[in-house]
Amino acid sequence: MTRAFFAGAMLAVWALCPAQAQQILLPQDLSPENLDITTLQTEQLPSLRRIEPSRRGLVVQEPVESGARAVLRGLDKISGSVTDLDLAVGAQTLFADRLTITLQDCRYPGSDPASNAYAYLTIEDKLRDAPIFEGWMIAASPALNALDHARYDVWVLRCTTTSSGDGNG
Predict the structure, then answer these.
(1) Which residues on neighbouring strands pair with residue 82, listed in sequence order?
(2) How many whole angstroms separate alpha carbon 52 and alpha carbon 130?
(3) Which of 1, 37, 75, 145 has an alpha carbon within 20 to 30 A of 9's alpha carbon?
């Protein structure tokens, strides 16, 4: 799924059901009034901030903070086994002896660390040449940008600032 499609999907959800849309992430140099989804590039992602709807349009609420670690959950759909994975930013782990998961970044709202998490992941399958997933996963909306694999599911639970991954934000 491309970044432009991801951004377009978020805007479509916002346009169709603004009452249900709670938040969206945009690069800091884009204003909600002149949003052009073709300008959302990977190099702009480090400067994300949270935007929320209001009666007067979109309002910037507060910046997001970076977490040192992320807690992910992996599911083997055939066996039904669930595994929680604690990863440091920049680290990788092997899930189910087949998927290599690399955590590039993890972010959370600065004012409420337990409310949501946004993790940038790269997931590779030993049986394929190219990565099967690369992009942002959102804890509050795991299906918005999900891993598309026949046997495995992986999603983000939370970001942590602690070394063990047991605390929120």
Answers:
(1) 75
(2) 35
(3) 75
For the residues of 140-169, what is the DSSP string, one character each? T-TTTT----SSEEEEEEEEESSSSS-S--
Burial of 123 (0-12, 13-18, 19+ CB in 10 A): buried
Alpha-carbon separation of residue 53 from 5, 12, 137, 139, 164 (angstroms): 21, 14, 21, 19, 35
CA 161 to CA 107: how far, in whole Å?
10
* pTM recorded for the entire structure: 0.62
What type of residue sits at position 24?
Answer: I
Is-contact 134 124, C-beta < 8 A?
no
pLDDT tens, N- to C-terminus, the chain (169 residues): 455 555 555 555 555 444 444 444 444 444 455 554 444 444 444 455 555 555 555 555 568 899 999 999 999 999 999 999 999 999 999 999 999 999 999 999 888 878 889 999 999 999 999 999 999 999 999 999 999 999 999 999 999 987 655 555 5
